[in-house]
Design a protein that fits this description.
The complex is a heterodimer of chains A (293) and B (283). Chain A is mainly alpha-helical. Chain A contains 13 helices and 2 strands; from the N terminus they run H-E-E-H-H-H-H-H-H-H-H-H-H-H-H. The chains are: A mainly alpha (293), B mainly alpha (283). Chain B: The complex is composed of two ATP-binding proteins (UgpC), two transmembrane proteins (UgpA and UgpE) and a solute-binding protein (UgpB).
Amino acid sequence: MLKRVHFPTSALPYLLVAPQIIITLIFFIWPASQAVYQSFLIEDAFGLSSEFVWFENFQILFEDSLYLETFWRTILFSAAVAVLSMGSALILAAFADRVVRGATTYRTLLIWPYAVAPVLAGALWVFMFNPTLGIFPYILEFIGIDWNHYLNGGQAMTLVIFAAAWKQIAYNFLFYLAAMQSIPRSLIEAAAIDGAGPVRRFWDHIFPLISPTTFFLLVINAVYAFFDTFGIIHAVTQGGPANSTTILVYKVFNDGFVGLDLGGSAAQSVILMILVIAMTVVQFRYVERKVEY
Amino acid sequence: MVENRRILGIVSHLVLILGVIMVALPIWITFVASTHDAVRMTQAPIPMLPGTHFFENFKQTLFGAGLSGSEGAPVWRMLLNSMAMALMIAFGKIAISLLSAFAIVYFKFPFRMGFFWMIFITLMLPVEVRILPTFEVVANLGMLNSYWGLSIPLIASATATFMFRQVFLTIPDEMLESARIDGAGPLRFFWDILIPLSRTNIAALFVILFIYGWNQYLWPLLITTDTDMTTIVMSIKQMLEAAEQSPQWNIIMMTALLAMIPPVFVVVGMQRLFVQGLTETDK
C-alpha cells in the first residue's frame, strides 16, 4: 500500500488529494447522502412541505406490483443480455483461439462495437427493426411474423436485449480470448495426445480453466445491463409499450424527472446503490481470490 | 494448433466470418442509409447496397441545416461539444487520479486511508443511482449548460486512481532513493520520474476515458437545455423522435455515423493501448 521509502509528512499530500476529494464530496458523497435522506421523506402534492416517514417509501415500493414487476424484468433482461452476449463471445473466442493466421484481423473486426454509445446502438437496431421500413420486419413477414415493437411488448423486449447484447460482445470477446490464450499450450497438447477431440478439449479443459473469467464477466455484464443500457431503452422504447421494457434505472429516471415523485425515486436510487455495492463487493472478493493462485 | 484438420480450420474461419458479419451488419445498414436520398429511404425494403448521395448527405448533415424542420444546433457544433466534453473528462480524470495516487503511495499522512476509502466509495455510486440530487447540486452551482457542468461531476474516478496506485507500487524504491540523493523534491520526482515511467499507462487510460466521455448520454441529457450545448450522442434521440413525423433516415444515419467515427477510430487505431487500458482498469 505505502512505499517503504516515502516522503516526510507535510501539507503537500493534502494539496495533492484535494481536487479528487473535493469533487468526490460535492458530486458523489453529498448527492448520495441526499438521496438516502430524501428516501425517508414524503412530499405533499404541491411540493410545499415534506414529512419524515422512515421506511414508508420503501414499504410502498415493495407493495407496488409495478415496482416488483420492474425488478424481475430487470433481472430477466440482465440475464438474457449476459447469456446472449457472453455465449456468442465465447463461441467466437474459441474459434479465434484456434485460428493461427488472421487472428488479429478478426479481433480488430470484432472489438469496435465497444466504442459505439448505447444510445447509438439503440438507434441502429431500431432502424433495422422499423416496422414499416426496417430490413428485419421485411424478412420476418415472409415467415409469417408481424413485427411491431411499438405495440408488442415481447418484441420490444427482444429488440432491446439484442441491441444491448450486440454492443457488449466486443468486451466479452476480448476477455475470453485473452483468457484462452493464457492457457499453457502443453496442457491442451497433452489432452490431444490422450485422444481428446476439439469439442472434448473445450468442455473438459478450456471451459473450466477460464471459469474465473466467466464469473468476472457475469458481474461486469450484470452491471452493464443494470445501468449502462439506459440509453438503449430511452432511444428504442422509452420503457414502453405499457412498461414492458421499463428497467430499474429507467424507472428511477422516469419517476424522478418525469413523474416528479422525489421520495419514491430517491428510495429506488437507494435500492440501486445497495445493488451496486453488492456487485462491487462480489467483484472485489473475486479479484482477491484470483490473486491467490 | 494441436492437430491439423483442414475441415476444422475452414469451419473456424466460417464461424468467425459469420460473427464479423453479425457484428458489422448494423453499421453496414447505417452506412448504406447515409448514402441514399431521403425519398429512397422511405420505400420498403430499404436498400442493402450503397447509393450515390454520400457526399451530399455529408455536407447537408455537417454544415447545412441538418434535419430540416428541427431547431437543433448544427452537427459540427455538436461534434465540437462532444469533443470538448470527452477531452475534459479524459484529461481531468487522469490529472486528478495521478495526483491522488501519488499522495497515497508516496506520503505518510494522517487520514491517508480515510481518503483512500472515500475515493473507493465513488466506485459504488454511478451517476445513474444519484441523478436527481447530483442534478440539484450542479444546478445550485450554476453549472447547467456549461462544459464545466458536463465534465467535472464525471471526473472523479476510483478506477483510474487504483490503476495509477498499482503502477506506482511496481516502481522500485531505489528510484526514489537515488532521486532524493540527487536532491529532487517530491514534485520534481513526480514530474521527472513518475510521469515518464507511467506514460504507456496514461495513454492506455486515455483511450478508455475518451470513449467513456464521448459516449455519455444520461448526464448531458439532464444538464443541457440550451441547444448550443447539445452533444452529438444526445442528438440522435431527438432525431429519432423527429423521424416519427418526417422520416429523413439518410440524415439521421449520417449523424449516427459521424457520432461513432471518433471513438471507433480511437479503438481501431490504438488497439494495443485500448486492450491494455481495458484489462488494466477493470482489475
